[in-house]
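U., I forgot to send this yesterday:
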Amino acid sequence: MASHLRVVSSAPSGSPVPPSSTPPEWLSQDAKAEYRRIVKAVRHSDDLQAIDRAALIGYCEAWAMFKAATADVTARGHLVPGRSSADDARGDAGMVKNPSVQIMRDAQTQMRAWAKELGFTPQSRGETKGQSMSTKAPAERLLTS
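Result:
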C-alpha cells in the first residue's frame, strides 16, 4: 500500500520545530497580524514550537477580540444607551455599561492565561528558566548555584 504522507518540514533530530510563519487562513485579520508578530519575535529561540500552535492561535484570537472591544469602548465610551424600557426606568438617562467592557475583561483574562502558558510574560519566562533548578536535588542545587 502506497503512502500519501510526505514531510513538509523537518528539523535535526532532537531540535524543536518552530511554528509556521504563515498563520491559518481562517484567523481574523488582527489575529493573523499578531500571529506573524509573535512568530517573528521568537523565531531564533526554542521557546515556541509547532506543537504550541493551538495555544498561539488562542492567544492571537483573544488579542483580536481585546483589540476590537477596546476600539468600541474608545469610540462609544464605557456607558452606552440602553435598549430596553427597564434601562430607561432606572434613570441615568438610560445609560448602561458598554458590553464591550466585559468582552475586554474576558479577552484580557484569556490573553493572560495564554501568555503565561506560552512564556510571553517576564514572570513566566523566569519560571521556565528557574524550573530546572527547582527540580534538582538539594545537593545538586548547591553545586550548581
